[in-house]
Design a protein that fits this description.
With about 425 residues, this protein is α/β, with parallel strands linked by helices. About 45% of the residues lie in helices and about 15% in strands.
Length: about 425
């Protein structure tokens, strides 16, 4: 994107302190992808990342290793009654850094500052499902809701679905919301074999000859994994070599896992399920691309990043014809009512049994996924920052000079060479 001659560099503080080290969470992926994209625009923007104290994870440290205008500062983000103390610490830190914009990526939104705030909202699932009633009633969520409605200059919604929910449920004016779809760094051409995948195949011989049905291992009720299990069991007689491969490990506790295992045994599919656990991005790309189908049975998504990842890797995707899933997939996958096991079963039978449909969906998925790029996400986010400043000029003070005051107030500055 060409820099306008009248535009100066912006200085932005991005708060990733709540999930910087959550390597496999969707919001964590957003943080890394956004920073990666903004780094390519560093001629126009200076970035300070607020992260958890201690060394930066490898994939973030590389971005903050040598550009003197980029830096990482440690701060502890606390919940409960300690949030009042956090508000004071954030206010002091923001005053020291003197940014043009503060970008909030989670529910901690600093209220004691005059700096324009941009906040990314991923979804409003807490408002829509009874399973989140405790969280929805918490002081933290109520304060977040008030802050989004009253204390934020501009909102980034990652989908039209979330933007519509913000307007309908929280009465946020549409002209304060910028819809910026996610990109992804997973997938693309030239995926190479990984030792991790070879080890999985060695441990689970059914992966050698079987057709993989791939899905995330997430035990939140909203993710609707049980319905997929019922659908998979219904197809076993027609496709006895099929295998249900579940990657990751989210929302798992002993009781949920016990009930899940009992259900798998009752359905007679326990021996046809492979749990990979968390895997590298390289292995995940291979799983997506080699699957017979990627089934995403979730009932609601603010975006559905695994869908985009799978599409970019050329998978046949099956998802619900609702919320952001319909928005992201379009006509590049099979959209069905995933609350109905028969609908999922029928869609799986089609992609397993119709070679021409399978090939067509894979091609269409790659083409549609190519429209969702990290570069576009970053460029649009930069424009949101500029809108939030109302056209204010960037400050003349050198970024490095502001860190001198930070180091004396408990900040963990980690600048270095690259």
């Amino acid at each position: 994107m060409k820099k306008d001659a009248g535009e100066r560099r912006l200085r932005v503080v991005i708060d990733g302190s709540a999930f910087e080290n959550l390597r496999h969470a969707g919001q964590r992926r957003y943080l890394v992808d956004l920073l990666t994209g903004l780094y390519q625009l560093r001629a126009q923007i200076d970035v300070v990342l607020l992260g958890s104290p201690g060394p930066a994870p490898d994939d973030l440290a590389a971005l903050f290793g040598g550009n003197s205008r980029w830096a990482r500062v440690g701060i502890r983000n606390e919940g409960g009654w300690r949030r009042h103390g956090s508000q004071l610490r954030y206010a002091s830190l923001i005053r020291s850094l003197r940014p043009d914009v503060f970008h909030a990526l989670h529910t901690m939104i600093p209220l004691l500052t005059r700096v324009p705030i941009v906040a990314t909202v991923y979804d409003l699932m807490f408002e829509l499902f009874d399973e989140y009633e405790v969280s929805r009633s918490s002081r933290e969520w109520r304060q977040y809701r008030w802050s989004v409605r009253r204390g934020v200059k501009r909102l980034i919604s990652i989908s039209e679905t979330t933007a519509a929910d913000l307007t309908a449920l929280w009465h946020v004016p549409a002209d304060r919301i910028d819809i910026i779809h996610l990109g992804t760094g997973i997938g693309g051409e030239g995926a190479k074999e990984t030792a991790e995948l070879n080890e999985l195949v060695r441990k689970h011989p059914s992966l050698v000859s079987g057709q993989w049905i791939l899905s995330p291992y997430n035990l939140e009720r909203r993710k609707n994994l049980e319905t997929l299990m019922v659908a998979f069991a219904g197809n076993l007689s027609s496709w006895p070599d099929s295998v249900l491969v579940l990657f990751g490990r989210a929302a798992v506790d002993p009781e949920r896992e016990r009930l899940w295992r009992e259900r798998a045994a009752a359905l007679g599919i326990a021996g046809r399920i492979v749990l990979t656990g968390p895997v590298s991005d390289e292995t995940l790309a291979l799983l997506y691309g080699r699957s017979a189908a990627f089934v995403f049975p979730s009932l609601y998504e603010g975006f559905g990043l695994p869908l985009l990842e799978a599409m970019k890797c050329g998978a046949c995707v099956i998802a619900r014809k609702a919320s952001a899933m319909q928005e992201i997939v379009g006509d590049s996958g099979l959209l069905v009512e995933t609350a109905d096991p028969a609908a999922i079963s029928g869609a799986m039978a089609r992609v397993l049994g119709e070679d021409s449909l399978n090939a067509s969906l894979r091609d269409r998925a790659r083409k549609r996924a190519s429209q969702f790029t990290i570069a576009s996400m970053a460029a649009q986010t930069l424009q949101t920052y500029r809108r939030a400043t109302g056209g204010r000029r960037g400050k003349e003070t050198a970024l490095g000079r502001s860190f001198e005051s930070v180091s004396g107030s408990g900040g963990d500055d980690q600048r270095g060479g690259r």
